[in-house]
Amino acid sequence: MTREEQKLRQGIIDACLAMNAQGINQGTSGNVSARHGKSMLITPSGVPYEELKPADIVAMPLDGGNGAYKGKLAPSSEWRFHLDIMAARPEVGAVVHTHSTYATAMAICGLEIPAVHYMVAAAGGPTIRVAPYATYGTEELSHNALAALEDRSACLLANHGVIATGPNLQRALWLAGEVETLARQYVLARALGNPTVLPDDEIAVVVEKFKSYGPRGKAAQKAVKPAPRRKRAAGGKTSARKRSGPAKGTPGRGGKKR
Question: Is 78 a catalytic residue?
């Protein structure tokens, strides 16, 4: 096992522990996978996350739809939709599946999440759809999930839970949390009255803006060199030119949105 693979396997375990710590999953009901070359690494079935070691993570070939795997433990019972999503969506590097409370409650009622908040754009469109119910682990459920994920990076599974995808584990886990937050906001807003839904054209604008939004590691962010300090003039006085600050009427650093 290479150091890179070891790190990715540990990342899967960390994501599992994080989703339980964040309250968007409970027990071993959820599962996590990540792309690794021509294979997929996925959590094993039924093992408490606290007990997992990198060697316990299961490897499955991306071109093997028959459930073939390498490892001492069997893969998650939901391996099929993880595998099918990665096979159909080459931009997906990780899949996080949770049973988060509010999002699952909406899925139980067959309710998609509408654009009551602009953050719905994080999932790629004006709604987060609900895939029709099918028994867990089946090819039918995988087919339904892929359809609900068309042009989207997250969906609900009727009477089941949530699927969130991303280019990496960090992004997929972040999106799973956002989906639960959106569902909670919508449920509370409905309890208060009639929520206002943002128009599709506004969400299209936000989708474009979100292409550079979301959690990123330091290495992924463009390095910005600090401006050199101006030298003091003779006698200890500062140079006559002052460093420019925010233009009048323009919000400073604290006023920048997110």
Answer: yes
The residues, ordered by sequence, that sit 6+ positions from 103 with a Cβ below 8 Å of its Cβ are 113, 156, 161, 162, 179, 180, 182, 183
97 located within any domain: yes
Q: How many domains does the chain have?
A: 1
Can you give the CATH number for the domain in which 158 is found? 3.40.225.10
| Per-residue pLDDT tens over the stretch 144-165 | 999 999 999 999 999 999 999 9
Degrees to nearest 5, angle at CA 257 with 253 and 258: 100
Enclosing domain of residue 135: 3-201
- Does residue 196 fall inside a structural domain? yes
Q: What is the pLDDT of residue 215?
A: 67
pLDDT digits (tens, 9 = 90+) for 95-108: 999 999 999 999 99
The tokens describing 212, both together, are 């550079």
Q: Please report whether residue 17 resides in a domain.
A: yes
- Catalytic pick from 4, 78, 140, 150? 78
d(Cα 17, Cα 25) in Å, to the nearest integer?
9
Q: Is there a domain that residue 187 lies in?
A: yes
CA atoms within 13 A on the CB side of 229: 4
